[in-house]
Amino acid sequence: MPSQVQLSKKILKTIGKTNAEFRLINEGDRVLVGLSGGKDSLALVHALKYMQRHAPFDFDFEACTVHYGMPGEEYGYLQEHCKTHGITHTVYKTGIFDISQDAIRENSSFCSFFSRMRRGALYSFAEKGGFGKVALGHHFDDAVESFFMNMFYNGTMRSMAPVYKTDRGFHLIRPLIQVRERQLAAFAEENALTTIGDESCPAMMKNIKLPFAREKIKHWLEVMEQENGNLFKMINASFKHIHDNTFLDPDRWIRDDIALNRTEISDKTQRS
Q: What is the per-residue pLDDT for 272?
């Protein structure tokens, strides 16, 4: 009998609270989990396995690992791990690596390309399997880093929603979105799990530009958190208390002092 993978009470409490707060998984749902084999997605499948045993509602989930079709790509350990712990798992073979040969130039950033292609493949598998929801292992650190990357490098205020409806008609959910990355790292270490990291990404086989922007943001946040231990707690609170009419977006203001409607205000602002 294999030893049971243990999740800390703090992680389980956070996931349970997140699920109740945002109603991510409900009675009768069929959920497809994107399982890369990293610490985050491994924690996610074991958290959902725990939920199946203890939640006051019934739902089904399966795991899917996208196979890029690159040389030496092997997921035998991951398949055996899922089999051992009673997790239905499919390795979905694609030609993403071959497509990338002509789709991207050398010395370009491959990360976003492979991320989009992997997500598209996962969506296709979900459609074929009749899944109503797709679950990804993004955690709170991912959400915070994405927020500041979008602000500093793209000029937008955008993060990662716990749930949203995709153009293909099903919902994408992030059950770990309020869990800290260090908690997931501790989960993998405490359970002595073999994890798959960046080495499984086809981008690592290319002459690529690594995502320096994310690393800079991550380091900046680490320094800030050392100075203020409540930093991420405050950011979490701020994500839930958005006073969006205080920013420079006329479409979000209520104006009763002029006759212009919101569309006209926006058009005038864009032309100025």
A: 45
CB neighbours of 174 closer than 8 A, spacing ≥ 6?
24, 135, 136, 137, 138, 160, 161, 162, 163
pLDDT one-digit tens code per residue, 170-214: 999 999 999 999 999 999 999 999 998 755 555 445 555 556 788
C-beta of residue 210 within 8 angstroms of C-beta of residue 81: no
Nearest CA to 67 among 40, 45, 95? 95
9-241: what fold?
Answer: Rossmann fold (3.40.50)
Q: 129 — phi, psi (to 5°)?
A: -90, -5
Mean pLDDT of 214-230: 96
Q: Where in the chain is the domain with CATH 3.40.50.620?
A: 9-241
Query: Cα separation of 231 and 233, whole Å?
Result: 5
CB 153 within 8 A of CB 220: no
Q: Is 215 exposed, middle or buried (0-12, 13-18, 19+ CB in 10 A)?
A: exposed
Could you tell me the end-to-end alpha-carbon distance of the chain, in angstroms, rounded to an integer? Answer: 69
pTM: 0.87
Cα 90 vs. chain centroid, distance in angstroms? 19
Report how far residue 7's alpha carbon sits from residue 70's, in angstroms, rounded to the nearest whole number.
33
String of b and e for 98-132 (b: at least 16 CB within 10 Å)? eebeeebeeeeebbebbeebbbebbbebbeeeebe
Cβ atoms within 10 Å of 163's Cβ, excluding its own: 16
